[in-house]
Structures are given as C-alpha cells and as structure tokens.
Amino acid sequence: MSDDTSAPRVLDRIDWPVHTARLTLRPARPDDADAVWEYRRLEPVARWLTDLPDDAAGFRARFAEPGRLATTVVVEHDAAVIGDLMVRVEDAWAQTEVAAAARGVQAELGWVFDPASQGHGYATEAVRELLRLCFTELGLRRVTALCFADNEPSWRLMERVGMRREAHNVADSLHRSGQWLDGLGYALLAEEWKSA
Q1: Which residues, listed in sequence order, are joined to residue 77 by a DSSP beta bridge?
Q2: Distances in Å between the alpha carbon of 192 and those of 5, 31, 35, 130, 136?
Q3: Pairing of strands 164-174, 180-189
Q4: Which of the four, 30, 135, 142, 163, has the lowest number of CB atoms within 10 Å?
Q5: pLDDT in the model for residue 52
Q6: What is the CATH number of domain 10-195?
Q7: pLDDT band of 3, cuts 50, 70, 90
Q8: CA distance 159 to 83
C-alpha cells in the first residue's frame, strides 16, 4: 500500500470498531501515539522493531503520518491500548500480462504488544481476528509476516494462528546492534485459513 495520502485507505472498508470476546480493534488515531510509545520504547519490545524514534515527540510525528495511520490498528482491552497491528496491503508478484489481477491481493502483517499484557492470549486473539478481517472483509488471498529468528515470541504467535514458515534466511537481517541475524518468513493463504 502506498504511503501517498491520496491512496485509498484499504482499512476503511471494514466496519470499525471490531470486537472479539475480550478486545476491541480499531484504526489508530494520532492521539494513540503516547499510549503506543509507552510500550514500544521498552527495551524488550524496541529491540525487535524496524524503527523507533529516540523520543516521544519524534514517535508522535512518525505515528501521525497518514501512511502509518492508514495501516495501523490498535488493540484495546478494557478501553486501554495494549497493542498495535500493521496491515500493509500489497501487490503480489506477477508477470506483466496478468499484473492487474495481482494488485492489492495480499498483505504483510505485524504486531507489537505491551509486555504487561502478555501471557493472557490477547495477541493470539487479536491476530486471529486480524486474519479473519484480512480474508473475509478485505478479500485478500494471502498474508505474510516477518521477524528476526531470535524473536521467538513473534514466530511462535505466527505458528499459533496457523501461519506456516516459508523461509529461514541466514544472516540476512542487519540488527541495530550491528549483528547480522537470521530472519524468518511466514505466510497463510485464504484457503488454508478457511480449512483450519
């Protein structure tokens, strides 16, 4: 999905908010930035994030960018933000003659949760609902997720929700520590989700 502010907001096709047994999922708003910053700045969380501004003001500015807001869903439990989800709709690779049929048919997913809320199954509940939304409401055919191989909680979550490991790339990801770490890639097709 483009970060261009004129691009259609794919998530606008969903009737928000969405409720699960214990959680509420809704599109992120600029005023969610401080709550999200509180857990994203924590070292056990921040070590795995792709980018993290150095301070709350920098984070607020990045969080409020239209492209970021267009792909971010917050997760609430008892009206408190406990996590955030990313849904970046993308085109699938295709040969030129059929490229139009591959536009906007898949998404990369991501998630970050407050360590204080871990151990209760909230992440599993939220990501399962996100998968349902991707396949039923958005009509996607495939979703993917990536993580560092050392980020065991993330890849274990991918497996819990039925995603399959498609790639284990050796020393392909440069971590901000300066080390080259292994990366993992997971995916799930709509038909696999339906049959599960």
Answers
A1: 80
A2: 33, 37, 35, 15, 13
A3: antiparallel
A4: 30
A5: 81
A6: 3.40.630.30
A7: very low
A8: 19
Nearest to 16 by CA among 4, 3, 25, 28: 25
Per-residue pLDDT at 148 exceeds 80: yes
Whole-structure pTM value: 0.94
Q: Give me the sheet containing 142-148, strands edge to edge.
A: 18-19, 24-27, 72-77, 80-90, 106-113, 142-148, 180-189, 164-174
User: For the chain, which residues make up each domain, given as ranges?
Assistant: 10-195
Q: Is 43 exposed, middle or buried (0-12, 13-18, 19+ CB in 10 A)?
A: exposed
Measured between alpha carbons, how far is 11 from 27 in angstroms, rounded to an integer? 8
3-state secondary structure of 41: coil
Token pair for 64: 């409020």
Q: Extract the tokens encoding 149.
A: 């191989």
User: Cα angle vertex 132, ends 124, 190, to 5°?
Assistant: 110
Residues whose CB is less than 8 angstroms from the CB of residue 75 and which lie 6 or more positions away in sequence, other chains included: 23, 24, 25, 81, 82, 83, 84, 85, 113, 122, 126
CB 115 within 8 A of CB 42: yes
Dist. CA 77–CA 33, nearest whole Å = 17
